[in-house]
């Protein structure tokens, strides 16, 4: 079997206080680097905090890989 990296995505979850209560915001980023570290995800969350009213809650990293059968 041959496994090849295809793409990596990052989904950031943030919370915002509104007059109606707490609201959850989700931001998605495609075409991230192959090996995203926890520190990089947290750094992205902190950047988003600095340019919005949201508070970084967590991030999810999704990696897509292609697996090919090499025995024919």
What features would you describe in this structure?
The mean pLDDT is 95. The protein is 18% helix and 56% strand. It has one domain (2-67): Roll (Ubiquitin-like (UB roll)). The chain is elongated and about 60 Å long. A three-stranded antiparallel β-sheet has the order 2-1-3, with helices on one face. Strand 1 and strand 2 (21-29) form a beta hairpin. It is built from one helix and three strands; from the N terminus they run ββαβ. It is of the alpha+beta class and 72 residues long.
Classify the beta-strand content into a percent band.
Answer: over 45%
Helix content: 10-25%
Strand order of the largest sheet: 2-1-3
Low-confidence stretches: none
Using the 3D structure, state the CATH architecture: Roll
Number of domains: 1
- CATH fold-level topology: Ubiquitin-like (UB roll)
How does the helix and strand content classify structurally?
alpha+beta
Backbone shape? elongated
Radius of gyration: 16 Å
The number of helical segments is: 1
Kindly report how far apart the N and C termini lie. 11 Å
Number of strands: 3
- Main sheet characteristics: 3 strands, antiparallel
Tell me, rounded to a whole number, the average pLDDT: 95
CATH class: Alpha Beta
What is the helix/strand order?
EEHE
């Amino acid at each position: 079997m041959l496994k090849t990296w295809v793409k990596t995505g990052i989904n950031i979850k943030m919370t915002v206080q509104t007059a109606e209560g707490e609201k959850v915001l989700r931001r998605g980023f495609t075409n991230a680097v192959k090996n995203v570290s926890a520190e990089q995800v947290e750094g992205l969350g902190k950047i988003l905090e600095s340019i919005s009213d949201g508070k970084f809650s967590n991030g999810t990293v999704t990696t897509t890989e292609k697996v090919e059968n090499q025995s024919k």
